[in-house]
């Protein structure tokens, strides 16, 4: 089939490449000229395992191309997938400006019957409006319908998550749209759940918000564990054997980040409010997460008189390992606080440094300063304290003695519970983590 994809971010690009990989003819469209140039030269603008290899393979075999010329890409496409951003507005609602812009471009361009498929996460009912909007602005008299096909990939494993997805959700209002989507996904050989369009939109939010709730719940229990002398690692292990609970998303830490959970929890809470309903569970998840992100900073404030003039090692900047994405990363909550309070930060991240530098250029910043280093040991050298914000393999691989050997005073705040508390104690490190017995 001839497929166009609007947006070459995490969702659009990975979808486009995977559609090409299973044999469809794909044109990816973006408004960002730099991205299109990079993509044409075989370089992925985002970091995802296996993505570049598949991009190059499918480009060389003629199944994928990249363009800014949306008219040409949409003109005679059988299906157009929309994967543009739906970021959070200051009031928590989803910003649908980019969706509306693509809808208008589609209406101006299509010259034959076409299925428009919204992959972006949009509030329930949005796709009804997108269909109406496109039909209102159609230039040519052609049949067009809108389907919902929410995306469930996780950054860091996006290609694998797409090619081996647990399920594909398709939300349609007609047999024609349903059959079109079934045909597009047939070569993936994955379970397909076909539902109505509004249910599909809700499945996405309900799934993301459930996972956010699970994380916040474990963080809440972890905070209580500290107060009552239980250990969240042992608690989670014990819970994980119950198949009704499952073993994933039970790790306590400094809260969830990324481009999805924070905005999707707020958007659903906002939507509920619009309908006069208070979504108390999701609100609780949001509140817990907000406080969790700075919980270690607060612990450090209690322990130290000042951060001024202290060398602070920061290990990990991205919101999770395997991605260069910084959106809503806990580092973005903590680093400004440390800088405001005069810390001299030495930050290490295997892939996120370039993006972080754009927000916090190297050098003096307010009362403090920030320096980016290539190796974790450089960050630790002579440091007075260390914060661990991301559990990258290269950080988790550091043995406890490394902190003792390199740091001036081995005081470690671990937001990802990477280390065994007893081993850190044995190595002579003052180790603070989340929900576990403190070593000192
Ligand atoms: P992103 O910000 O990485 O990418 C969006 C892209 O769309 C950008 O490259 C932008 O230049 C482009 N764009 C904007 N306007 C355009 C237009 N008119 N035509 C063509 N391209 C245009 O976004 P993302 O992280 O891929 O997320 C996209 C959507 O998918 C969001 O709704 C998000 O909630 C959802 N989602 C994201 C993930 C994830 O892990 N990132 C997972 C599931 C769902």
UniProtKB/TrEMBL annotation:
Residues 313-421 form the UDP-glucose/GDP-mannose dehydrogenase C-terminal domain. Pathway: Nucleotide-sugar biosynthesis; UDP-alpha-D-glucuronate biosynthesis; UDP-alpha-D-glucuronate from UDP-alpha-D-glucose: step 1/1. NAD(+) binds at residues 30, 35, 86, 121, 263, 327. GO terms for molecular function: NAD binding; UDP-glucose 6-dehydrogenase activity. Keywords: NAD, Oxidoreductase. Its EC number is 1.1.1.22. GO terms for biological process: polysaccharide biosynthetic process; UDP-glucuronate biosynthetic process. The active site is at 260 (nucleophile). InterPro entries: 6-PGluconate_DH-like_C_sf (IPR008927), NAD(P)-bd_dom_sf (IPR036291), UDP-Glc/GDP-Man (IPR017476), UDP-Glc/GDP-Man_DH_C (IPR014027), UDP-Glc/GDP-Man_DH_C_sf (IPR036220), UDP-Glc/GDP-Man_DH_dimer (IPR014026), UDP-Glc/GDP-Man_DH_N (IPR001732), UDPglc_DH_bac (IPR028357). It comes from the Bacteria. It holds the Pfam family UDPG_MGDP_dh_N. It is an enzyme of class 1 (oxidoreductase). Substrate binds at residues 204, 249-253, 257, 320. It catalyses: UDP-alpha-D-glucose + 2 NAD(+) + H2O = UDP-alpha-D-glucuronate + 2 NADH + 3 H(+). Belongs to the UDP-glucose/GDP-mannose dehydrogenase family. PANTHER family: UDP-GLUCOSE 6-DEHYDROGENASE TUAD. This is UDP-glucose 6-dehydrogenase. It comes from Variimorphobacter saccharofermentans. The lineage of its organism: Bacteria, Bacillati, Bacillota, Clostridia, Lachnospirales.
């Amino acid at each position: 089939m001839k497929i166009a994809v609007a947006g070459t971010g995490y969702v659009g690009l990975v979808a486009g490449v995977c559609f090409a990989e299973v044999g469809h003819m794909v044109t990816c469209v973006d408004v960002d000229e730099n991205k299109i140039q990079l993509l044409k030269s075989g370089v992925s603008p985002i970091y995802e395992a296996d993505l570049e290899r598949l991009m190059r393979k499918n480009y060389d075999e003629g199944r994928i191309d990249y363009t800014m010329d949306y008219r040409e890409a949409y003109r005679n496409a059988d299906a157009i997938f929309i994967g543009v951003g739906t970021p959070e507005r200051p009031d928590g609602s989803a910003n649908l400006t980019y969706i509306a812009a693509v809808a208008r471009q589609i209406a101006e361009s299509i010259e034959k019957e076409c299925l428009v498929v919204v992959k972006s996460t949009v509030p329930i009912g949005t796709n009804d409006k997108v269909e109406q909007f496109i039909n209102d602005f159609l230039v040519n008299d052609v049949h067009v319908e809108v389907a919902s096909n929410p995306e469930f990939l996780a950054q860091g494993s996006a290609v694998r998550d797409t090619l081996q997805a647990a399920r594909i959700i398709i939300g349609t209002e007609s047999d024609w749209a349903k059959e079109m989507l079934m045909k597009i996904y047939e070569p993936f050989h994955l379970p397909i759940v076909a539902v109505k369009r509004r249910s599909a939109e809700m499945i996405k939010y309900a799934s993301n918000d459930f996972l956010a709730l699970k994380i916040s719940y474990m963080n809440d229990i972890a905070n209580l564990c500290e107060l009552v002398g239980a250990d969240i690692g042992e608690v989670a292990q014990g819970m994980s054997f119950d198949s009704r609970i499952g073993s994933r998303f039970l790790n306590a830490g400094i809260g969830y980040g990324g481009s999805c959970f924070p905005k999707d929890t707020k958007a659903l809470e906002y939507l509920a409010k619009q309908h006069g309903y208070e979504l108390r569970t999701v609100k609780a998840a949001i509140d817990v997460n907000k406080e969790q992100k700075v919980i270690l900073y607060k612990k450090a404030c209690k322990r130290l008189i000042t951060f001024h003039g202290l060398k602070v090692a920061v290990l990990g900047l991205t919101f999770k390992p395997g991605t260069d994405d910084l959106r809503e990363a806990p580092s973005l909550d903590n680093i400004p606080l440390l800088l405001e309070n005069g810390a001299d930060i030495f930050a290490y991240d295997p892939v996120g440094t370039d993006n972080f530098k754009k927000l916090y250029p190297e050098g003096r910043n307010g009362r403090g300063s920030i320096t980016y280093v290539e190796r974790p040991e450089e960050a630790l050298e002579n440091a007075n304290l260390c914060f661990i914000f991301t559990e990258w393999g290269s950080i988790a691989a550091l043995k406890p003695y490394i902190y003792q050997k390199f740091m001036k005073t081995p005081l470690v705040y671990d937001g990802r519970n990477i280390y065994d508390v007893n081993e850190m104690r044995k190595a002579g490190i003052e180790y603070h983590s989340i929900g576990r017995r403190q070593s000192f």
